[in-house]
Amino acid sequence: MAQPIRSRNWQGPWPKTPGRLFGTAFVRLYQLTLSGFIGNSCRHFPTCSEYTYEAIARHGLWSGGWMGLFRVVRCGPGGTHGIDPVPDVLEQDLKWWTPWRFWRVARQKGEHS
């Protein structure tokens, strides 16, 4: 019997486009190299790197990258904490030309869960 794949990153299906492959590879490289030095003290679940990996895989490099960046900013001192999953579907007003709107993605379900 084959062993199930166990990974800290999201294992769901996603389109393997060049942007998504580059973005998820970059996050994975960070996880394997710098993550241990920068700290294992993320205040959210999933961790910021796992969130960014999943956001890029599900929503593409541009949208997922912005979501991941804003998640890292929220994770700092005085920031948010708790369970903060990647949304399955993005709202209609989240367009590529309005990246600042991705800041509110976590606020939709309540940041301080």
From TrEMBL:
The keyword Phosphoprotein does not apply. It is found in: Cell membrane. It is a peripheral membrane protein. Signal peptide: none annotated. Keywords: Cell membrane, Membrane. The keyword Membrane applies. InterPro entries: Membr_insert_effic_factor_YidD. Belongs to the UPF0161 family. Could be involved in insertion of integral membrane proteins into the membrane. HAMAP family: UPF0161_YidD. This is Putative membrane protein insertion efficiency factor. It comes from Nitratireductor aquimarinus. The gene is yidD.
